[in-house]
């Protein structure tokens, strides 16, 4: 079981790294561009992410999180079950739920504005600020999940 926790932890760390890139410099770069160009860049990124390795990791960790959380209740002793369960809950809520209920609807709204420069220019500053704030939460959550699973792997 320790190798599954290790792989899940490394995958969550990779997800955290992608989110950190957006929080650290990608969004800041897009925000510095004129609104129409920043928004167009973000729409392009959002359209390409669906066919990426990142999506395999992001979505693949959802059933893995659930499975690890359930399995931890029956198989581990000591600190490992708590760490595994905490990592699973944090990933499912702080990454998957925030993405599905926050970032994705905003991405869809921005995409629907493609070709409407005035609406896009009005929406872009609010989008960029809120989307980035939500992304900070996803960065933190995936990083904490990674740490929980990697530490649990060492204590199994």
UniProtKB/TrEMBL annotation:
Membrane-spanning residues where? 6-27, 48-74, 80-99
Keyword terms = Membrane, Transmembrane, Transmembrane helix
| InterPro entries in the cross-refs | Anthrone_oxy
Q: Which domain of life is it from?
A: Bacteria
Q: Does the keyword Membrane apply?
A: yes
Q: Name one Pfam family in it.
A: Anthrone_oxy
Entry protein name: Uncharacterized membrane protein
Species for this entry:
Cognatiyoonia sediminum
Native organism taxonomy: Bacteria, Pseudomonadati, Pseudomonadota, Alphaproteobacteria, Rhodobacterales
